[in-house]
User: What shape does this take?
Amino acid sequence: MENVKNILIIILVSILLIGAALGIGVIIGKKNSGDKIELPDGEAVETEEVIINEEVTVDNATINEIINPASELVTYKYYYTDAGTYEKNQKLGDTDYIIPFTTDKTVYTYSGTINAGIDTSEITYDIDNEKKKIIVHLPNPKIISHELDESSFKTYDVKKSIFTSSSLNDYAEFTGELKTKEEDNLNSNSEFWSSLKKNTENVVKSLMTADDRLDEYTVTYDWAENNQ
Assistant: This one.
């Protein structure tokens, strides 16, 4: 009889322990649960919240979207003031002999502005999304526009002959030659092109760093070999 009581006590304690364990499990389950999903019969089931971090990748289209709106990227301006001598004379027939007293000589000065930079449509990229690196291949910089300020054109010490008369209209004929001269001088100015490249890199960098998608990327620059 005593043994039967002991067995009943053991069974009762076991039932209580199992019930307690189930209760604790339900409480823990509720604490770990996330949003509720409504079933058709109106019952709610607790679901575990899952957060997915999507990895950001970059391609050429991504960077073109950032850079290309800049179109031709004028990155440097070159201002100049120069002087020269204009001569007009009369020659004897088809010879090179200059008829005496037929030479007009004029000293003139002028100013202008040359815009130089790169065409962003010619930029290419090497992108390594795994290492988070971008190499920007920049095209050869070039002169984009050139304006000679006609209002700055002035003449000095005009020596007029007794047979030949010159006017400012004559000087307009060699405006193209003046521009070519200034562009040739600029193309041989290595310091100007070196500064332009540095400024171009800074402009491109400012455009790229303004986009959050490129925050984790290291950007380097590679210039075309046939540059100034």
Observations:
- The first helix runs from residue 2 to 32.
- The beta strands are 36-38, 44-46, 72-88, 104-119, 124-128, 133-138, 142-159, 218-223.
